[in-house]
Amino acid sequence: MNLRQDIYQLVRQIPPGSVATYGQIAHLLGLPNHARQVGYALYQVALDSDIPWHRVINAQGKISTAPQRHGTDEQQRWRLEAEGIEFDPQGRIDLKRFGWRPLGEKHGG
Protein backbone atom coordinates (compact mmCIF):
# COMPACT_ATOMS: atom_id res chain seq x y z
CA MET A 1 0.00 0.00 0.00
CA ASN A 2 1.35 3.40 -0.95
CA LEU A 3 -0.34 5.67 1.57
CA ARG A 4 0.48 8.90 -0.21
CA GLN A 5 -0.95 7.65 -3.51
CA ASP A 6 -4.04 6.33 -1.72
CA ILE A 7 -4.56 9.76 -0.15
CA TYR A 8 -4.19 11.48 -3.51
CA GLN A 9 -6.57 9.06 -5.22
CA LEU A 10 -9.22 9.65 -2.56
CA VAL A 11 -8.81 13.45 -2.58
CA ARG A 12 -9.30 13.42 -6.37
CA GLN A 13 -12.82 12.10 -5.71
CA ILE A 14 -13.92 15.21 -3.78
CA PRO A 15 -16.18 17.10 -6.20
CA PRO A 16 -15.95 20.84 -6.85
CA GLY A 17 -18.01 22.77 -4.32
CA SER A 18 -17.35 20.25 -1.55
CA VAL A 19 -14.71 19.90 1.15
CA ALA A 20 -13.41 17.06 3.30
CA THR A 21 -11.41 17.16 6.50
CA TYR A 22 -7.98 15.69 7.01
CA GLY A 23 -9.48 13.34 9.60
CA GLN A 24 -12.26 12.28 7.24
CA ILE A 25 -9.73 11.29 4.57
CA ALA A 26 -7.72 9.33 7.14
CA HIS A 27 -10.88 7.63 8.40
CA LEU A 28 -11.99 6.66 4.89
CA LEU A 29 -8.57 5.08 4.34
CA GLY A 30 -8.94 3.03 7.51
CA LEU A 31 -6.42 5.14 9.44
CA PRO A 32 -8.36 6.92 12.19
CA ASN A 33 -6.29 9.40 14.18
CA HIS A 34 -3.85 9.88 11.29
CA ALA A 35 -5.11 13.24 10.03
CA ARG A 36 -1.59 14.68 10.24
CA GLN A 37 -0.32 12.11 7.76
CA VAL A 38 -2.97 13.29 5.31
CA GLY A 39 -1.88 16.87 5.92
CA TYR A 40 1.78 16.03 5.35
CA ALA A 41 0.97 14.22 2.10
CA LEU A 42 -1.11 17.13 0.78
CA TYR A 43 1.55 19.62 1.86
CA GLN A 44 3.90 17.91 -0.62
CA VAL A 45 1.53 18.33 -3.57
CA ALA A 46 2.54 20.95 -6.13
CA LEU A 47 0.15 23.89 -6.08
CA ASP A 48 -0.68 23.38 -9.76
CA SER A 49 -1.25 19.63 -9.39
CA ASP A 50 -4.41 17.90 -10.61
CA ILE A 51 -4.94 16.78 -7.01
CA PRO A 52 -7.54 19.15 -5.50
CA TRP A 53 -5.55 19.68 -2.30
CA HIS A 54 -7.50 22.87 -1.64
CA ARG A 55 -10.68 20.87 -0.89
CA VAL A 56 -9.25 19.42 2.33
CA ILE A 57 -9.57 21.51 5.48
CA ASN A 58 -9.32 20.99 9.23
CA ALA A 59 -12.02 19.57 11.50
CA GLN A 60 -13.06 23.07 12.60
CA GLY A 61 -14.04 23.89 9.02
CA LYS A 62 -11.06 26.19 8.58
CA ILE A 63 -8.07 26.38 6.31
CA SER A 64 -4.92 25.21 8.07
CA THR A 65 -2.02 27.58 7.61
CA ALA A 66 1.46 26.40 6.74
CA PRO A 67 4.09 29.07 7.45
CA GLN A 68 6.56 27.32 5.14
CA ARG A 69 4.17 27.84 2.20
CA HIS A 70 3.38 31.51 2.56
CA GLY A 71 0.29 32.52 0.61
CA THR A 72 -1.18 29.07 0.11
CA ASP A 73 -3.95 29.69 2.63
CA GLU A 74 -5.11 32.70 0.60
CA GLN A 75 -4.87 30.65 -2.60
CA GLN A 76 -6.83 27.83 -0.98
CA ARG A 77 -9.59 30.22 0.09
CA TRP A 78 -9.71 31.80 -3.37
CA ARG A 79 -10.01 28.38 -5.04
CA LEU A 80 -12.77 27.27 -2.68
CA GLU A 81 -14.73 30.49 -3.13
CA ALA A 82 -14.39 30.11 -6.91
CA GLU A 83 -16.17 26.75 -6.51
CA GLY A 84 -19.03 28.39 -4.59
CA ILE A 85 -17.93 27.51 -1.07
CA GLU A 86 -18.76 30.20 1.47
CA PHE A 87 -16.88 31.23 4.61
CA ASP A 88 -18.44 32.76 7.71
CA PRO A 89 -16.95 35.91 9.29
CA GLN A 90 -14.61 33.73 11.39
CA GLY A 91 -13.23 32.03 8.26
CA ARG A 92 -15.11 28.77 8.75
CA ILE A 93 -16.88 26.61 6.21
CA ASP A 94 -20.19 24.99 7.17
CA LEU A 95 -19.30 21.30 6.97
CA LYS A 96 -22.97 20.28 7.05
CA ARG A 97 -23.60 22.33 3.94
CA PHE A 98 -20.35 21.90 2.00
CA GLY A 99 -18.92 18.70 3.50
CA TRP A 100 -18.30 15.80 1.13
CA ARG A 101 -20.31 12.69 1.88
CA PRO A 102 -19.11 9.79 -0.23
CA LEU A 103 -21.51 6.88 -0.64
CA GLY A 104 -21.64 4.74 2.44
CA GLU A 105 -20.16 7.32 4.80
CA LYS A 106 -22.43 8.23 7.66
CA HIS A 107 -20.23 10.72 9.45
CA GLY A 108 -16.80 12.16 8.72
CA GLY A 109 -14.58 14.37 10.73
UniProtKB/TrEMBL annotation:
CDD domains: ATase. Keywords: DNA damage. InterPro entries: ATL_DNA_repair, MethylDNA_cys_MeTrfase_DNA-bd, MethylDNA_cys_MeTrfase_DNAb, WH-like_DNA-bd_sf. It comes from the Bacteria. The keyword Transport does not apply. Gene3D superfamilies: Winged helix-like DNA-binding domain superfamily/Winged helix DNA-binding domain. Residues 3-85 form the Methylated-DNA-[protein]-cysteine S-methyltransferase DNA binding domain. This is MGMT family protein. It comes from Candidatus Synechococcus calcipolaris G9.
